[in-house]
Amino acid sequence: MIRILSRYIILFVLTLLVLAAMSFSLAYLFPGDVLTNLTGITAQNDIQRNALIKQFRLDSGYLVQFGYYLNELFAGNWGYSFISGLPLRDEIGLALPATIELASYAMLLAIVIGIPVGCYAGLRSYTPADYGINSASMVGYSFPVFWLALLFILVFSLELNIVPLSGRISLLFDIPDKTGFILLDILLADNIDRSLAFKDALQHLLLPTLAISTITTASMIRLTRRSVIDVLNRPYIAAARSRGLSRWQIFFRHILRNALLPILPLMAIQITTLITNAMIVETLFSWPGIGNWLIQAIYQRDYPALRVGMLAVASMVITLTILIDLFNRLIDPSREKYERATV
Amino acid sequence: MPMLDIKNLTLEIDNGTSRVKALDKVDLTVNSGEIRALVGESGSGKSLIVSAISGALPPQFHITADRMSWNGESLLSMSTEQRREIMRRDIAVVFQNPITAMDPSATLGEQLEESIPDELVKGKWFWQRRQSRRKSAISTVHKVGIKHHRHYLNAYPHQIPTDIGQKFMIAMALISQPKLLIADDPTRGMETTTKTQVLKLLTRLNQTRSLSILFISHDLLAISSMAHTMTVLYCGQSVESGRMKMLRKRPLHPYTKALLDSAPSFRKDLPPKSILPNMDGIIPSLKHVPIGCRLGPRCPRAQKDCVITPAVRRIHDHTYSCHFPLHMEKL
Ligand SMILES: Nc1ncnc2c1ncn2[C@@H]1O[C@H](COP(=O)(O)OP(=O)(O)OP(=O)(O)O)[C@@H](O)[C@H]1O
Ligand code: SF4
Ligand SMILES: [Mg+2]
């Protein structure tokens, strides 16, 4: 167990180190002044400039510079935005949770709908019901996400006018930011009408979540269906049937677990797509998430923001991927038993 | 009346383009309290019979039978619920490949305990029932000759050696206290002492609890020492069937004779997938089965009539399917 954990930790640290190195090198690769790219501060005069060069060790070798850069990253000094002049850490601290919130609801929806429907299709494989579900998920899977989002906006916001067009919550509500998750923040906020705010936030959430989760749900259905069909053909299912277990017993004790185990790592791959999709959809719905924020940074050539923003997104994806992989490793009994027992 | 009575069982396998008859009019009966051996070369369809009886067939298998009954009730026409009850309480199956027949994500203990029918579990409250389950799991595991129950009950199928897996399959079959045990090659690859232990256990259960056993094996020595009756299968056809003693003394079918001769004085096991020493050729694949008597191309006594499938003939309780049987002059 210790060995596995340390392997994962080493992998994690190394990946992050490489990412940090890449983000550091971006300061040199982006056009413009290295110092400005790195700090986000445009020096007003030579004295300030020299002080900054000294502080950021730009007069020493690259390694020393990188060491200082890492140090600063850990200390939370991520530099300042060109445009707003605010600390990048604060800006990302607001934007990233908004994206995570959107992506998690989409994932939740995909799991809650995708797995039961996929199981149903798998158990009824090659029947009309299965063909119906299968073709529907195929269609859902092949929609481009931005097109779907635009379609939703067109139909539900502009034509039917039942849900708001953009943003996270109506400006009428002043929700203090505590967790970064709007629904939690509403629950924690005082002096507002919580149920009204909640309803409003849900309405804002509805379209972007649906747009993102359509694709993830579709692939979840397909993965689950395939996996259930695979498991159904295994000899141990025939053996369980021959022991006279009921269909429910067989499903819950033998099919479900074996079908879900192989799709967990595939779900980890889905998360990357999911976050990418979330970032695309954000820009369409003006959702104040990291994707939207990065697009703004690109438009405005805010190089320090791009540098740190990419690092933040990449670190988040890596962390999630490794965590899911580790989790998968811990619950899969066909890996070593004793690793499992010590969790 | 036989307990398990199968008449003209035909199993066809759909392989996309065509259907092949993997079992062709097989007859098989198991009487109450008897040990019946089912023998035949590798690929003759023994395991297919087992899956046909157990009822868990993949969708590309199609079975038809004139009769397939359990204690007089037709297994083919009864409801799935009734069928399930019979498989749960009366018939237990030991599959040929124990490791793949066990759920890789559940411990052996869990799988063993779920095979216990409810009426064998004592106690009213769930903790009492859990304890009772555990107790009968442990005693059954001991019975089949596994000593370290604590270790193995918590192990997963991939963590155990094959012979423990085979014993566990037997334990899983016996724990429901069935009336008929179908054991498909339960001792394959076991070392002699372990094998003797298992065979002794089965014989004892047969004598003390009058457990009927359909025993499938390549081990003619074991079969001749414990089985009362024997059915010989060749390429999906049942060729001869009768009391063990009769078959050994005077086999009527050329294939039975070759099979018995291939294990001189029953001293050697017949290794699976081997060519019979007394008969040229190998068992035909299902794509190229000969018409008529499927033994035809390999049979030393074959004649023109053999292109017509021989009917089942009967002398007392001895049945055979051959146009030109052996030893007829002595009858
Ligand atoms: N799922 C399947 N699809 C197609 N053909 C099959 C399938 N299962 C078995 N067969 C064929 O049916 C025939 C009989 O197989 P079976 O496993 O019953 O042999 P067996 O008598 O049990 O042999 P062994 O002694 O090696 O266990 C073989 O020719 C095999 O190729
Ligand atoms: S019917 Fe003909 S081919 Fe078949 S076993 Fe008898 S003699 Fe041989
Ligand atoms: Mg077999």
UniProtKB/TrEMBL annotation, chain B:
Protein name per its UniProtKB record: ATP-binding cassette domain-containing protein
Keywords from the named record: ATP-binding, Cell inner membrane, Cell membrane, Membrane, Nucleotide-binding, Transport
Subcellular location: Cell inner membrane
Keyword presence, DNA-binding: no
GO BP: peptide transport
Annotated membrane topology: Peripheral membrane protein
Single GO MF annotation: ATP hydrolysis activity
Pfam families linked to this entry: ABC_tran, oligo_HPY
Any one GO cellular component localisation term in the record: plasma membrane
Residues annotated as domain ABC transporter: 4-260
Family: Belongs to the ABC transporter superfamily.
